[in-house]
Design brief:
With 232 residues, the chain is of the alpha+beta class. 43% of the residues lie in helices and 15% in strands.
Amino acid sequence: MKQIIKSAIIAIAFTSGTVMFTSCDKVVEDTVDGLFKPLNDAAEEYAKERKQQNMDNLFNWRISNDTDQEAIDKYGLDNCFQVTELNSAFWASSQAPDVNPAIDINNLRMVRCLTHSYNSIAICGLICDKSIASDVAWIFRQLFDANYQIKDVTTAEHICKENLTGMHYTYGYFFDINNPESATELERQGLSVTINAGKPLASDDLAVKLFKEKGFKWGGDEPEGDPNCFSK
């Protein structure tokens, strides 16, 4: 765009004869830079704000937000794949899923992880039982390192199962107090993980290989099983 405007101004200058040949290029360059300066300044300010936002998202672990490599380098990649306890503040938040009264929710953990999703790096939190949490964190780290695409990791808060599968969500613990039977027994206990629901995984998929390596059962090995689900 700048080159087009520059060419147009040069043409006008030569036609009118108001600018000498030796000074024409400098005058035009200054004119074009002056025209584009507000746009350039605005773009630089936006880029600066975006970088700060990506940093804040990661350091405050804002689930479902994006971050970038610069923020990850400062935060530490290893710190992005951790198992944390779920406190009362979380269960009182809008991100908390329904509570299954048949289990001890103190046994549930949040697996913090990053995923490659929609050409960006997403900050994620997946809830599962503490007995599988470390394995899940390790698996998601391997998938991230391999640039594996994972869509919409969610804590499954107040979302019906039909929407989850229809939108290719990824989730662990799942319980809908209004429709408990919409989840399997293992989902209600947090003992399974579903990856990219609705987009069946093949037997040679990296996720299948990694979950099996950690001793998980893959639904795709069962006649009526879910090829996106892993349980242990």
